[in-house]
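User: Could you write out the 3D structure of this protein bound to 4-nitrophenyl phosphate? I've included everything you need below.
Assistant: Certainly. Input first, then the structure.
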Amino acid sequence: MKKTKVLMVCLGNICRSPLAEGLLKAKVNPDHVFVDSAGTGDYHVGDHPDPRSIAVAKKNGLDITNQLGRQFSERDFDNFDYIYVMDNSNYDNVVKLARNEQDQQKVFLILDKIFPNEDAPVPDPYTGGNQGFVNVYNMLDEATDIIAKELQ
Ligand code: 4NP
């Protein structure tokens, strides 16, 4: 059976999308669903997730330490069925690389799962404190519950 492939995308691929990847991975059958993440920027290619994302994941029983940052590329449109972005800026950066309507239709704002049609962002926690990471974790936990259920 062909696996469904889901890509989580943020800017740096060190704070938000690694959490989204770790959360969804923990909720789906790996024989049926492949989950990965990427950043639209190249600042953190090859880096492990931010220590604050690692810490909030660990507190909730998830180990995301082994993930490595990579940059989103046009090829991801061929390799993935669903591309979930964290905010509108990520959306614009990903859609800019779409080659056709089919590519574009794979891209969704992740919080649309909880708040349909509200354009709600997962706020970038990079320059803030630890509470921002806790908030991001909780939003992504809720959104990935819905995504996992839909993929069943
Ligand atoms: P992320 O957060 O997009 O959630 O991974 C960021 C991490 C790093 C930078 C920006 C956002 N940065 O500019 O280095």
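The radius of gyration is 14 Å.
User: Perfect, thank you.
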